[in-house]
Write a structure and sequence with these properties.
Radius of gyration: 21 Å
Protein name: DNA helicase
Structural class: mainly alpha
Number of helices: 4
Shape: elongated
InterPro entries: CC_star_Cory, DUF7990
Oligomer: single chain
Number of strands: 0
Amino acid sequence: MSLPERWRTARARLGAGLREFYAAPYRRTFARAQRDEEDLFMMLVLSEALGVPNPASYYTVELLPVVYDRFHDWHRRMGMERSPLEHISCC
């Protein structure tokens, strides 16, 4: 292994170690923030179906197939035992 390759490898290891050092204590906080953003996004996409007027529903209806896979986890996390939507019965 040549010297530049060793430097590159050492720098990559140092970068990974520093990333782990700084991000590890906040990993749970980052995950929670990401989940909150995804929940808000899911609420925006499904707002018209849940009875909340949404002026952008024409555009968000195209996203329904994308969020359908995560719908069951979302309504369980929101405290709903069954699906709140009549046309989506996931459980």
